[in-house]
Amino acid sequence: MLGLAQMRTRPGRPERDVVFMSPALETGNGSHAIWQRLLTHLCVQTAERGSLRLYARLPMQSEELKLFRHVGFQEYGQTNIYRLRPNIDRRQISSTIRLRPQHASDGWGLQKLYTTLAPRAVQNAEGLAQGQWAITPRRWGEQGRRRGFVWEEEGELLAGLHLRIGKSGYLVRTLLHPDALDQAENLARAALRLTARRPNLPVYFAFQQYEPGWANVLPRLGFEPLTSQTLVVKHLAVRVRGKIPALIPALEKSPTEGAATSSMNWQEIRD
Question: Staple 102 to which of 83, 137, 148, 181, CB 3.0 to 4.6 Å?
Fold first, then answer.
């Protein structure tokens, strides 16, 4: 076997993520050509199975990023990941924000929140993130368990918070309304309170480049920068198999070729 590539389907969405590629490009021995062939195959296979977009998260300014560009992937954003220092006792952290569990009826409010925050180019790349903030039943093979919470005041959603729990730790993602940016630290504290039941697991916090404030807020709570990744997408053309309607033979022929025709003048109609 010369190489291996793996994809993962996004639950409930016609999209997939490239999650693993081998061999490492640093090994040489034709690894760049192997990656290019594997990625081309993944794109064809993804389109044939009806998916509309293929995503990947790549190291910034890397050989991997250059190769994905060559195959037709486009950059559309950047995600930053911070990690909480292990000496921070989350059980001692408090917050005045009252989160409640996310319900199916919150979908429209979260979608509005997303479109308020995300630039148009990001929305186009992510297909308006339809279903991205929905809590769907866990599927076979899906890693980790995801829980959703919202912060609501007077019937308006001011924030959404997703907490993914796995063997490697907690991953926090948020949507915070621009009018509530002064509550960013309070929201992060509320997220940390949710992780206090398993204090030995590390906590990671991910935010997009267009989400302001987090780079200043998180260090005050004990978070440190871990990594930054470039987000890329390839939009796929899906082949639609359909039947071409056939015309009735009699209608395809001109009057001189078809059955006998008759004409009537106004005198015949009156009679």
Answer: 148
* Tokens describing residue 97: 């924000």
Per-residue confidence (pLDDT) for residue 260, from 0 to 100 = 32
**Token output for 82:** 């911070």
CATH superfamily of 1-79+229-241: Gcn5-related N-acetyltransferase (GNAT) (3.40.630.30)
Given this model, what pLDDT does residue 156 score? 92
Nearest to 233 by CA among 72, 21, 78: 72
CA distance 55 to 81: 18
Whole-angstrom CA distances from 83 to 102, 234, 240 are 25, 29, 45
Q: How far apart are CA 171 and CA 182, in angstroms?
A: 22
Domain boundaries along the sequence of the chain: 1-79+229-241, 86-221
Q: At what angle do helices 63-71 and 31-48 cross, to 10 degrees?
A: 50
Q: H-helix or E-strand containing 195?
A: none
CA-closest candidate to residue 56, choices 41, 67, 45: 67
The one-character DSSP state at 138 is: P
- The reply to whether domains 1-79+229-241 and 86-221 share a CATH topology is yes
* pTM > 0.85: no
Which of 150, 74, 83, 82 shows the shortest CA–CA distance to 114? 150
Q: Which residues of the chain have pLDDT under 50?
A: 247-271
Report the C-alpha gap between 237 and 43 in whole angstroms: 10
Which CATH architecture is the domain 86-221 placed in? 3-Layer(aba) Sandwich (3.40)
Task: Mention every residue, 6+ apart, whose C-beta is less than 8 A from residue 174.
Answer: 159, 160, 161, 162, 187, 188, 191, 207, 211
